[in-house]
Structures are given as structure tokens and as C-alpha cells.
Amino acid sequence: MFAELICCWIKSGAKSVRLCATSFESLNNEESQVVFKQYAKLFGITLLLAGMVRVTAAPPKIDYIEPFLTTEVLIHFDTEANRTYVLQYTEKLVNGVPGGTWTNLFIAPNIPFENHYIIVDTRLRPQRFYRLRVFP
Question: Tell me: the pLDDT tens digits for 94-130?
């Protein structure tokens, strides 16, 4: 069984917002659109767009980062089966948010079973921000 995140953009007056709900494989795309149209009618809003995006049961996350020896850190994360994960870093802040160019540190290949990775990285830089991306 898989879970899906169903999102639509709705408009109420001058504001547009995103409405999301979780569905399971029992609903198809047409049934999901009917559900959103019913919500829109209930709240008196105009439905702009409805669609489905399959997501993993849990979003990708870095479990923790710990110091290792004197010059390195260990980055821990779990993976689900049949997904490719990319661990990236940047050393720049843009308006107080990690940004700029993201560099691939490690690519966990698409394999048919779950796994736990521990990746070693330097801690000799003044600052480093990490993100974990997942691809089907």
C-alpha cells in the first residue's frame, strides 16, 4: 500500500492557498478531484487545480549529525527501498536561509531494500548546511 499527498490550489477572494490531504491507493485521481470540489463548494471557494503526487511514507530526513574525531562529522540518515537519495551541502546563507549552490556529498543508489547510511564529512569549514533529497 502507498500513501499519496494530494494537493490543490484554492482561491478565496484575493488570496490563494494550497490545500493538501493524504489519501491511500483506494482513491484514484478523478475521485480525489471530486473530494476537493466538494471541499471547495463547502467553503465557497474556487478550485484552481487538483493533482496527485506520490510521496514516501515518511519525508527524507537527516536523523542526526555528530562530531567524529577532531576534524569530521558523521551524518546519519535512513532510506526506503527503491528510492535514490542525494545528500547535499552548501556553505552559504542567502537572506538567513541556506542557499546558493548545493553540492552533492553522497548519492545513495536505488536499491530494493531499506538501509541506514553514515556519511563522513569535514568540520574544518566555518559553517556547512545539509539537505537530503529523494527521487523515485
Answer: 888 888 899 999 999 999 999 999 999 999 988 999 9
Give the residue from 75, 81, 79, 53 showing the smallest Cα distance to 131. 75
Upper half-sphere CA count for residue 120 (Cβ side, 13 Å):
5
Burial group, residue 87, by CB count within 10 angstroms (0-12, 13-18, 19+): buried
Confidence of residue 33 (pLDDT cuts 50, 70, 90): low
| DSSP reduced 3-state for 33 | helix
- 8 CB-contact burial (10 Å; exposed 0-12 / middle 13-18 / buried 19+): buried
DSSP conformational letter for 27: S
Burial (CB count <10 Å: 0-12, 13-18, 19+), residue 132: buried
Strands (E) across the chain are located at 3-12, 15-24, 46-54, 62-68, 72-79, 84-90, 92-94, 97-99, 103-108, 115-122, 129-135
What CA–CA distance (Å, rounded) separates 24 from 82? 19
pTM of the shown model: 0.59
